[in-house]
Write a structure and sequence with these properties.
Elements (H helix, E strand, L loop, with lengths): L7 E5 L2 E2 L1 E2 L4 E2 L8 E7 L14 E7 L7 E10 L16 E14 L3 E14 L4 E4 L3 H4 L35 H8 L10 E4 L3 E17 L2 E14 L2 H5 L10 E18 L2 E17 L8 H4 L12 E4 L6 E2 L7 E18 L2 E18 L6 E4 L7 H6 L5 E4 L3 E21 L2 E9 L2 E6 L5 E3 L1 H6 L13 E3 L20 E10 L6 E11 L9 H5 L7 E4 L32 E6 L8 E13 L3 E20 L15 E4 L2 E6 L17 H5 L1 H4 L2 E27 L2 E15 L6 E2 L8 E2 L4 E3 L6 E10 L6 H7 L3 E9 L3 E2 L17 E2 L19 E2 L14 E2 L3 E15 L2 E9 L6
Parallel strand pairs: 1-6, 16-20, 30-35
Antiparallel strand pairs: 1-2, 3-4, 5-6, 7-8, 8-9, 9-12, 10-11, 12-13, 13-14, 14-15, 15-18, 16-17, 18-19, 19-22, 20-21, 21-29, 22-23, 22-24, 23-27, 25-26, 27-28, 28-31, 31-32, 32-35, 33-34, 35-36, 36-39, 36-40, 37-38, 40-41, 41-46, 42-45, 43-44, 46-47
């Protein structure tokens, strides 16, 4: 419904069950261990545990009873039953076996009950349907004539630039480091260098659930529940030995645990108290490739990698490949939360009152190296093909940062009062108020900081961290507003009202009208605010160098001061040149605020049909966005005879060769506003990204639904959603505020469709059951079968078109110009977009395409399931079920 992706709250057995690190959920019990669940997508009550903006999921684990109950199950999926994907050369190799069971009953009848469940899932898959392009034997011998031909480049003939001659080159000019990488790649299948690979899965998962219920008295019940979920996946490279299988997948050894205990006390016939205490912990261990050995020492390059034997290498621009990925390298993350909640329910003269509060303490610790192994990119800028750049060592860029070693803590508190009032026999009112003060997270290692422009101009140095650059102010320094080690102030006056009504129009229960309005506040999680702040400069830093003079073998040769890595905190040593900074710009930044409203009509029609029409809308303001404050300025023209370049009639503080461009990717950092204003102090600042609460989002949706209750063994239903979600998406190039006023550059904030926007969605369901046959044989063979079907059609997602080339010479995501009003070529075939609809913008300018404005391909699918339950004995049943997903393979 256009809500925030992290805006769904989860509770299990009355306690918060979310992952505070990223706003997602803890694992829920497997279906056979789940007693019931409820999903609210809009119009949520003010009552309950944390109520977030996009809806809530409330689930309850099964309990034991006075009778023994149990079940066992096994569910198998196998490639033998799978069709081939249209884009794959062969069928997949999926083998998935899911099995388990539950058992519960009385330990002491009428007093003490137990329930336990276990599920295990074993998945094996060996796909080989991903295409990459590696150096061919001819290419390794210096012959690029086939590799650069139209047959290998979408109909284009590529003529490689010097040192190539007629698309040939002496192998003596090849990079020794590049050849060492090439030697590890799999063999090619054709003269274009095509090779296939996949991510082998050898996944083992299991989940165990245990619950004890104790009926202390007739008025008092107590329960305790424990659940553990594991996820064990070896790194794909460690199984296959293929270096290409390191680019987009990693291994994991994860454990999620959840403990909850609760007390429910009937104070009187009209008063009930519910108390819960919970402890949740998620321990994630990301497993990187072992023994890949493509680190700096292995390749003989003068660089550093925090993991020693691993870097990230990407070859684009024509046929290319990738090896390594910092996002899937070795890392550990641990998130814990401890919380309690208490609610008193009262019934008074047509009112059902709920008064309660809940509190949690969240802790997060992270040890990751995604930025610190080094990202090496070859894009064809030098020779015309990425493979040519790679083998000759013409590095387009190297980006490297510090280790992500940080931890935070945060407190959450909420209190509420809500009432459901039977105002008249036909009208029910639901209203309430939540108080959710925002108490921002606190860094428990590495103080937060800001970059203060006024202090930078004055040359003010932090009194507590005297080696940090001028203008960097830390928590505890003079002028720091928040107390303690926080980066923003508390927001205590955060109130969220909710109101709704339900009207039985005729008083006969056949037609109802419902409406609601509410306000919610959300933040993504503990990693949302301080994660980048504690890993960027001055605690470490991320540095980008484009087209380094030393190439692949010695990328830091010409960098001021030499190789800045391993990154040493610049609070205890000399500042790192051109380091990247990230911080919240305002001490009083507010939580995102979401207003939601809905109106719906439901009516019962003849022939047991139920029709519903609903409107849902919301408006989100104060979305947290990142904005670039030190973006490079484009300096037009070429150097004069004295090697000078000019901006607004004044010479800039750097020189170029006479007649060469004043703006290149090689002098990106020299063109940053702080460097232009004061090169001596500006040299320490590269990218400076600020967090602001300036984003907005709007959603409007209409939902039509019709359902027919089972008649003559057939149940049918369907719904249609017509909706639109739009949000602004600031670019890193939005507004540059640092530096001299003449350097300011303003580019309008661009709106685009939301990532979740699907303009049209249709769902149709049908369930048909065979009748009760009179003939004994037919009754035994044919009675009780049920055929279920689901048909779903959806509009496509909206695409963001990127240019792939740094035409603005400012970095960040670059977009082309759209020059044709209709960007589509053939919506029914594989040639979906028209390449002629786009062109690269002029050097030093930005393209005109907004984000997420090109409609992607829609989808449809038809699923079937056949099932029957066989009664073996009065208390024993056997269920058979077969499912077919996308049975038309369309």
């Amino acid at each position: 419904g256009g809500g925030l992706g992290y805006g769904v709250s989860y509770t299990l057995d009355g306690s918060m069950h979310g992952n505070p690190n990223d706003g997602s959920q803890m694992p829920l019990p497997f279906p056979d261990a789940l007693e019931e669940f409820r999903v609210d997508a809009s119009g949520s009550s003010a009552a309950g545990s944390r109520v977030k903006s996009s809806g809530s999921v409330n689930a309850v684990t099964k309990s034991g009873t006075n009778e023994f109950h149990g079940d066992g199950f096994e569910f198998v999926r196998n490639y033998l039953f799978n069709a081939r994907n249209a884009f794959a050369p062969k069928r997949d190799s999926l083998k998935r076996n899911q099995y388990g069971g539950t058992f519960g009953g009385p330990a002491l009848k009428n007093k003490l009950f137990f329930f336990g469940g276990y599920q295990s899932t074993i998945t094996r898959s060996d796909p080989g349907n991903i295409t990459a392009f590696a150096p061919t034997p001819a290419v390794l011998a210096g012959d690029f004539t086939a590799f650069a031909s139209p047959a290998c480049n979408a109909g284009r003939q590529i003529t490689l630039r010097a040192p190539f001659v007629n698309n040939r080159i002496s192998t003596s000019l090849y990079s020794a480091a590049a050849l060492k990488v090439a030697a590890k790649l799999p063999p090619t299948l054709d003269e274009c260098g095509k090779t296939l690979y996949g991510y082998i899965q050898q996944l083992n998962e299991w989940q165990a659930v245990g619950k004890i219920d104790y009926q202390a008295t007739t008025n008092h019940s107590i329960f305790g529940r424990y659940m553990a979920t594991t996820y064990d996946l070896p790194n794909s490279y460690n199984v296959s030995g293929n270096p290409l299988a390191t680019t987009n997948a990693g291994g994991f050894d994860n454990l999620a645990q959840s403990y909850t205990t609760g007390s429910t006390y009937l104070l009187s016939e009209t008063a009930l108290n519910s108390f819960r205490v919970s402890f949740n912990r998620i321990a994630l261990h990301r497993l990187g490739p072992q023994g890949l050995n493509i680190g700096p020492k292995d390749l003989g390059i003068k660089a550093y990698s925090s993991l020693g034997n691993l870097i990230t290498l990407l070859v684009t621009g024509g046929g290319g490949f990738g090896v390594g990925n910092g996002s899937f390298s070795e890392a550990k993350f641990a998130t814990t939360s401890l919380g309690w909640s208490d609610e008193v329910g009262l019934i008074r003269a047509g009112h059902q009152l709920s008064i309660g509060a809940n509190q949690s303490a969240w802790r997060h610790k992270q040890r990751a190296f995604s930025r610190s192994i080094g990202d090496y990119t070859f894009d064809g800028s030098a020779t015309g093909l990425g493979m040519g750049d790679f083998l000759t060592g013409r590095l387009a860029s190297i980006r490297q940062g510090s280790d992500a070693l940080w931890s935070t803590e945060e407190w959450y508190f909420g209190a509420y009062a809500a009432d459901v009032w039977q105002a008249t026999p036909k009208l029910v009112l639901n209203y309430g108020l939540r108080w959710e003060p925002y108490i921002p997270q606190r860094a428990t290692e590495r103080n937060p900081y800001i970059v203060n422009y006024d202090n930078w101009v004055k040359g003010v140095i932090s009194p507590n961290f005297k080696d940090a650059p001028a203008g960097v102010s830390f928590a505890g320094d003079p002028g720091w507003e928040p107390s303690g080690l926080k980066s923003i102030n508390n927001s205590l006056l955060t109130f969220a009202p909710r109101a709704g009504f339900a009207w039985d129009v005729h008083g006969n229960g056949r037609t109802s009208v419902r409406g609601s309005y509410g306000i919610s506040y959300d933040v993504a999680g503990t990693a949302s605010l301080l994660g980048g702040n504690t890993t960027a400069a001055p605690w470490g830093g991320t540095t980008l160098v484009e087209f380094p003079g030393g190439g692949f073998e010695d990328p830091w040769r010409d960098f001021p001061g030499g190789n800045p890595f391993p990154a040493v905190s610049t609070t205890s040593g000399p500042p790192t040149p051109f380091a990247s900074y990230q911080y919240p710009i305002a001490f009083d930044i507010k939580m995102p605020r979401i207003q939601q409203w809905s109106l719906g009509v439901q009516t019962q029609l003849p022939a047991d049909f139920l029709f519903s029409a609903s409107y849902i809308g919301n408006h989100t303001s104060r979305l947290w966005n990142s904005r670039q404050l030190n973006e490079p300025v484009y300096i037009p023209g070429v150097g004069d005879a004295n090697r000078n370049c000019f901006l607004n009639g004044k010479p800039v503080p750097y020189t170029v060769n006479p007649g060469t461009a004043c703006s290149t990717t090689g002098n990106t950092n020299n063109r940053r506003p702080l460097s232009l204003q004061d090169p001596a102090k500006g040299i320490y600042f590269g990218s400076v990204a600020a967090r602001e609460a300036t984003g907005t989002s709007n959603y409007h949706g209409m939902l039509l639904s019709v359902q027919r209750r089972a008649a003559r063994g057939i149940n049918i239903g369907g719904n249609y959603t017509w909706s639109h979600c739009i949000s602004d998406s600031p670019n890193p190039s939005d507004i540059v505020r640092f530096g001299d006023a003449n350097l300011y550059r303003t580019i309008a904030t661009q709106n685009g469709n939301c990532n979740s926007d699907r303009r049209h969605i249709v769902n149709l369901t049908a369930v048909a059951s065979t009748p009760q046959f009179a003939n004994p044989t037919l009754r035994m063979l044919g009675t009780g079968w049920r055929l279920s079907s689901i048909y779903r059609r959806s509009s496509g997602s909206y695409l963001s078109i990127t240019g792939g080339v740094n035409r603005s010479l400012s970095g960040g995501t670059q977009v082309p110009n759209q020059v044709l009003a209709n960007p589509y070529l053939d919506r029914t075939g594989l040639k979906y977009l028209n390449p002629a609809a786009f062109e690269q913008p002029a050097i030093g300018t930005f393209g005109n395409i907004g984000p997420r404005n090109i409609l992607g391909v829609g989808t449809w699918a038809f699923d079937l399931a056949l099932s029957r339950t066989f009664n073996i004995r009065e208390q024993q049943k056997l269920e058979f079920r077969a499912e077919g997903f996308n049975v038309t393979n369309t």
